[in-house]
Amino acid sequence: MLPVNEEIRWGVVGPGRIAENVMADFAHVPAARPVAVGSRSARRAAAFAERHGLERAYGSYADLLADPDVDVLYVATPHPQHHAVALAAIDAGKALLVEKSFTATTAGARHVVERARERGVFVMEAMWTRFQPAVVRLRELVADGAIGEVRSVQADLGVAREYDPTDRLFAHDLGGGALLDLGVYVVSFAQMVLGDPDTVAATGSRFPTGVDADAALLLGYADGRSATLTTSLRYPTPGQARVFGTAGWIDVLPRFHHPETIVLHRAGAEPEEITLPPTGTGYSHELAEVTECVRAGRTESAVMPLADTLAVQSVLGRAGDQLGLAFREDPHVLR
Length: 335
What we know:
Blueprint: E1 8-13, H1 17-23, E2 32-38, H2 42-52, E3 56-58, H3 61-65, E4 72-75, H4 79-91, E5 95-99, H5 106-119, E6 123-126, H6 133-143, E7 150-158, H7 178-194, E8 199-206, E9 212-220, E10 226-232, E11 241-245, E12 248-252, E13 261-266, E14 272-275, H8 284-296, H9 306-323
Parallel strand pairs: 1-2, 1-4, 2-3, 4-5, 5-6, 7-10
Antiparallel strand pairs: 7-11, 8-9, 9-10, 11-12, 12-13, 13-14
């Protein structure tokens, strides 16, 4: 356990779009300080470091992993690269926040989790949804029985993207497709509320590159509960979620994966609108969770435990198999 006033030093693996968005929220986590970035392009790393005031920029991921003055790594590379980077980082004793999807495959996720547990190193999936204040309140309401016994979840997340086979979203080798990029949100939300499903049924379509263009998932539970989930890169959707119980329901207003407002509907009562904006852009809450866990010497988050990450990755894998997808981890990313 580190002293309570110990500052946690962060390094960024992969200076892409999502990393750019996350950086501003470090200002809302006083105990966390980003100090370094690694890219396979020294030029990109240097430019990112200059934009965000980082002390060090590395032209390889391996050099960043070897930096003794970095406590936590935020992994924001394409999905298939997470596996190799995470394993090497764990072996280097670095705590990790790994972007979703956690890996490209279920086996890859299992491998990373097993290694983290063996080495006693903190690892968490960067599912910022679970840390949004409005979602935290939703979980409290459900736990308190505000809508009775929860029986079903609906969630959708879709965007219309022009097909470009050279873009990461459509590239098979980079883990493109709707499931890993957007479907992870709807699956994680359902798993958060209902737990691990017993059955997964998926239908959808693919782009010419072989990645999924859209998918509809039906998650089934032995006691009859269910989740109906939709994700797409081919057409837009509202981005809303609903949790249905025997005594009411809760709407999570768009976009549900980083909402400000939920609406509680209870039998015999007027709808109750609850607005709880995030701090900063919304990434600050997951950054604070990792920072606090590392300072406390924990190896997992209670809010986003590794068991949940594995369950979500399993659902994505089972759905992908039914859609004819064949993702692989990239073992060469550190070379």
